[in-house]
Design the sequence.
């Protein structure tokens, strides 16, 4: 609110105070001194401001009430009514031009003074009681000074006449009801107007804008924006098939019907995932790892490549970051001993700089730092899985076997684990294993060799028939 606007409102309020027919009114056998009706106020504004329309005068009176120049005597209202509702002119001491800001100390003195008086007439409201308790905690170090000031003001007020005390009490209460500290009021300037004033353009601003536009002509950022928008559109189109609100789910949509079969088929503990669910794993590694069954299938694949410690480390970090504070230290130490310590049983492959930073954060950091001490290592391992392991997983026989089991769900009741172990791996001729065979990650035959059992997070497998005895050449 600018000083010019306040000066204009002060001038209008001064004219109203000079010409207003203030007198004592009767309200249900109660005398209300120095008041005027809303009808007289509207007629007075029409005369002073030369307004022809009554609605304009009512609007002007409402603005004066919102800014604190007038206030209703009996009940607080949001608009001025053109009837016999009683209003009172505010004391110039409480005008916004003279009281731009309000202080917590002044408000505490006012509330303390109210408590020292008759509780039945001057008791605090619920919001005032809450504000009083907060001020006691905030200003406890100077509460003695506040009490002395309240007693002095109350002593001075007792020397006034009864009618003057009634009027001043209503004026002071109306002021603090509208200008209480911490409460939004119409005098506060909107943040957009404040930013516009702070960002007033100068010659330097114009020169910077010209340089920015010249740089834009060289780099052509609109081409990058076009590529980004195309990427966003293609990504949304790829996910459209899996959105129940954009495409019809099978067998029915549980959000618009009472059939919950869709949620049952997509539960975390389901025996065979649906075809649409397995196909979604092929969109990105993020879609794969956020699915519990997808994580187990990926772990099975990584065990066949002797790198399952990567997914187990990533899952342990997710569990650590979502654990309560009392478990952070124990889980962080367990992760360190299992994945990062020298000679750890499941040691992961990260660079020395990341390892040193992680160990330093575990040793010297606070609890919050220890909770996220493995973030760099987690990002490095996840990037490795995303760029190296995930593409091979999508092309592997394990993923194709789970997808085939999902497609044949209606005819074959085989779980996804059995589908992995019973899926034929290519057209290679089966030969019995001998002692001469050696496992190697680079050997193509290693695709046929899967781990005997899943990790501890997976369900147990069914009993498999024993392997055939080795063939001995005579």
Sequence:
């Amino acid at each position: 609110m600018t000083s010019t606007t306040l000066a204009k409102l002060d001038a209008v309020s001064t004219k109203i105070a000079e010409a207003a027919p203030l007198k004592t009114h009767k309200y249900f056998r109660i005398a209300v001194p120095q008041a005027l009706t809303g009808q007289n106020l509207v007629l007075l504004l029409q005369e002073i401001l030369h307004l022809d329309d009554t609605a304009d005068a009512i609007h002007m009176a409402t603005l004066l009430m919102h800014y604190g120049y007038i206030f209703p005597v009996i009940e607080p209202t949001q608009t001025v009514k053109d009837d016999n509702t009683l209003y009172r002119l505010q004391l110039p001491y409480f005008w916004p031009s003279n009281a731009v800001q309000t202080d917590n100390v002044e408000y505490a003195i006012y509330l303390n003074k109210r408590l020292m008086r008759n509780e039945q007439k001057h008791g605090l409201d619920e919001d005032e009681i809450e504000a009083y308790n907060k001020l006691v905690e905030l200003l406890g170090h100077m509460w003695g000074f506040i009490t002395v000031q309240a007693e002095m003001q109350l002593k001075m007020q007792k020397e006034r006449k009864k009618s003057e005390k009634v009027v001043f009490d209503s004026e002071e209460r109306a002021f603090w009801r509208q200008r209480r500290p911490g409460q939004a009021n119409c005098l506060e300037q909107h943040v957009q107007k404040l930013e516009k004033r702070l960002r007033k353009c100068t010659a330097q601003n114009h020169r910077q804008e010209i340089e920015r536009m010249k740089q834009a002509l060289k780099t052509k950022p609109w081409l990058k924006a076009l590529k980004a928008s195309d990427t966003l559109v293609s990504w949304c189109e790829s996910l459209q098939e899996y959105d129940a609100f954009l495409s019809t789910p099978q067998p029915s949509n549980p959000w618009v019907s009472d059939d919950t079969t869709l949620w049952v088929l997509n539960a975390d503990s389901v025996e065979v995932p649906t075809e649409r669910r397995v196909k979604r794993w092929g969109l990105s590694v993020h879609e794969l790892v956020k699915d519990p069954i997808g994580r187990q299938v990926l772990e099975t694949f990584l065990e066949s490549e002797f790198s399952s410690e990567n997914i187990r480390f990533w899952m342990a970090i997710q569990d650590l970051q979502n654990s309560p504070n009392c478990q952070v230290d124990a889980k962080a130490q367990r992760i360190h001993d299992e994945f990062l310590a020298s000679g750890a049983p499941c040691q992961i492959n990260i660079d020395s700089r990341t390892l040193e930073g992680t160990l330093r954060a575990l040793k010297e950091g606070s609890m919050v730092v220890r909770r996220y001490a493995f973030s760099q290592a987690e990002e490095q391992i996840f990037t490795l899985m995303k760029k190296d392991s995930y593409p091979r997983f999508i092309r592997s026989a394990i993923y194709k076997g789970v997808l085939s089991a999902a497609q044949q769900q209606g005819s074959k009741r085989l779980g996804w684990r059995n589908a992995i172990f019973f899926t034929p791996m290519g057209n290679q001729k089966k030969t019995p294993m001998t002692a001469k065979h050696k496992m190697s990650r680079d050997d193509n035959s290693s695709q046929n060799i899967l781990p005997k059992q899943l990790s501890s997070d997976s369900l147990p497998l069914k009993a498999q028939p024993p392997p055939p005895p080795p063939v001995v050449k005579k």
Q: What stands out?
A: Residues 104-159 form a domain with the Methyltransferase, Methionine Synthase (B12-binding Domains); Chain A, domain 1 fold (CATH 1.10.1240.60). Strands lie at 23-27, 30-37, 70-72, 86-89.
